[in-house]
């Protein structure tokens, strides 16, 4: 089923008259419209004011899992208001409609999803024969969207529904506004005046007797010491107050020191369904939000939701269908007053619909706080993504924490909107602080942005190997990106060597982890810890190793003892710990047993051969694909070396009583041969399989051989610091004693990584491949 997404980000029902939009405001609107990409799923059709930015599209779809190549984009010709907003004349363009009909032909459209479900969208849906896919179309077609977004209309609907609203009124003439303002001021209250159609506090002003009142939720405070000053203010601001076209004016009491809250709902034909709630961040107008809210307690939040739902039932009763944000304030006395509804996909909707609804795993929902703010200046969107990736700050779906970039406003003002996802409000603020420090001093300029590394703070740039899209080795690019900062729980490491692993090839191709793009690859490094200058080796679960500076988690960083050089330490930690864990934790190796290792000349395999012997194995069988690799394994002390392509492999393994522990990283026919060659009570341990291999066997096969099968993934060791440290310590002791020696296949500069990727893919490497991140060539 297809969803027709319409990114009409700025409409008159949202912000009033569009004729006065400046070029900068138009660009901001166009950039904001691209946020519709977060809702896209495979096969959807999106109507955008302009073509999607490829980098932002790749980033969003990389996180949501939607296939970018399955999406269809249709852009109408420019209209009376230009090419950055989807105005009614653009949606009515005959050529655009003909193209949209062609694109939709043969598709089953289940939903018409617009940012603002207004009359223009309703007319388009009806013309396309999609009335069934737009619930609430009759209401929208009659201008209903203007009604439910009107701040003046809100007061009537809320009052009729019995929902608490601030004391005040709706006024239609200068005299009425003057009287209403003076009435509240005379009672000792400050006043909020509101333009009927605006968003984010941009159509609000605070009027006060006391000029020391702080502006929150409005652009400014206007001191009015007496009735004459009120009259003069109304006369001067009348055109602005009425939107330049005779709109009504809201006059209501302003509650200083209140917490701005919202509750969001989805209204359908059956019910009002809560989507989420949060607390807005005002500086002095809305610049972001945090969800769930942090100021109210559970009882207050429950009341916010209860009253918000009551308000939305009134909107549902009159025919509105879609998303509604019911905005309120929580006063210092604990009172809740609702002051407007936003009937559309709001600036918070993607947090609830997509981030909480799709990006976070089930086990993380309900235990994460999302802090979203705008205005972060960055050199460019691509460099910002690379920088947060290298710093270890990027959102990681496995932990449900990290930084997301919600919107790219670079073409308008050089900024991005970011969202810090963390386990507590304090952790979200700490994550935000680390992000801000990363880009401290960034002042992007259009001309400078073309220069490599432009916009980075002085001295903060570093060389890194970056991918901007998934694909082959040719996608690897050397770039200058900002250095990472030490976020909470992380340390800075000046990298001397990075490891090249098979996982890097899979990440680069988009087959594993799906890091936000652009991304810096590399999951293990060795270097000097900046805090104390000590040599350390570290694992990076979300990449960032192919760079001059890395920011691994402190818990995944181990000091390198004397007697072990950097190359050996790096080769041992990732692959050595994998081999060690597979043999001991998963394989439960006992003294005197027979161990067989597949891909035995590889990074994990050649260490597993040596570790099996060091840990007491009685006999070690090694499998390798070429005569050269098999000779290398004999030099390591393997008792028997076999060709994995030997058609009699299972029989060879079963000789002399069979194999007690079969350690596999290949899968397919080799794994099945290993299963057949197990001794009674033997164990098969898998640490992965080659791309495209599907492994199947039955419990009957295991039962008939009294055999066991288990997988091993190093990430589960990393959650236990004592276990991780113990494995690293044992590996380093064996290395210092010369009982385990990592084979270094080659050491390449950043410029040689692409060739090394190709060599590893072609199985031309033996042992560990290292990257000297500081070597030029």
Description:
- It contains 26 helices and 33 strands.
- Helix 18 (566-586) packs across helix 19 (603-614).
- The chain is an alpha/beta fold.
- It is elongated.
Major beta-sheet overview: 8 strands, antiparallel
Distance between the termini: 52 Å
Broad structural category: alpha/beta
Radius of gyration over C-alpha positions, nearest whole angstrom: 31 Å
* Overall geometry: elongated
Low-confidence stretches: 442-459
**Mean pLDDT rating:** 89
Provide the spatial order of strands within the biggest beta sheet. 14-13-10-11-12-15-17-16
Q: Report helical residue fraction.
A: 25-40%
Beta-strand percentage?
15-25%
How many separate helices?
A: 26
Number of strands: 33
Which structural traits does this protein have?
777 residues, alpha/beta, 8-stranded antiparallel sheet, 7-stranded mixed sheet, elongated
Concise account of the structure shown:
This protein is an alpha/beta fold and 777 residues long.
Secondary-structure topology with pairs:
Layout: E1 2-6, H1 12-15, H2 23-33, E2 45-47, H3 54-64, E3 72-74, H4 88-91, H5 94-104, E4 109-114, H6 119-127, H7 137-141, H8 144-149, H9 151-161, E5 168-171, H10 174-186, E6 190-195, E7 204-208, E8 221-223, H11 227-241, E9 249-254, E10 259-267, E11 272-282, E12 286-291, H12 298-317, E13 322-330, E14 336-342, H13 349-359, E15 369-377, H14 381-390, E16 402-409, H15 410-413, E17 415-422, H16 425-438, E18 461-467, E19 476-482, E20 493-500, H17 502-508, E21 519-520, E22 524-529, E23 535-539, E24 549-550, E25 557-559, H18 566-586, E26 594-597, H19 603-614, E27 619-623, H20 627-635, E28 640-642, H21 649-654, E29 659-664, H22 668-676, E30 678-686, H23 699-704, E31 708-711, H24 715-718, H25 721-736, E32 744-749, H26 753-761, E33 768-772
Parallel strand pairs: 1-2, 1-4, 2-3, 7-8, 26-27, 26-29, 27-28, 29-30, 30-31, 32-33
Antiparallel strand pairs: 5-9, 6-7, 6-9, 10-11, 10-13, 11-12, 12-15, 13-14, 15-17, 16-17, 18-19, 18-21, 20-22, 20-24, 20-33, 22-23, 23-25
Helix pairs in contact: 9-12, 10-11, 18-19, 18-25
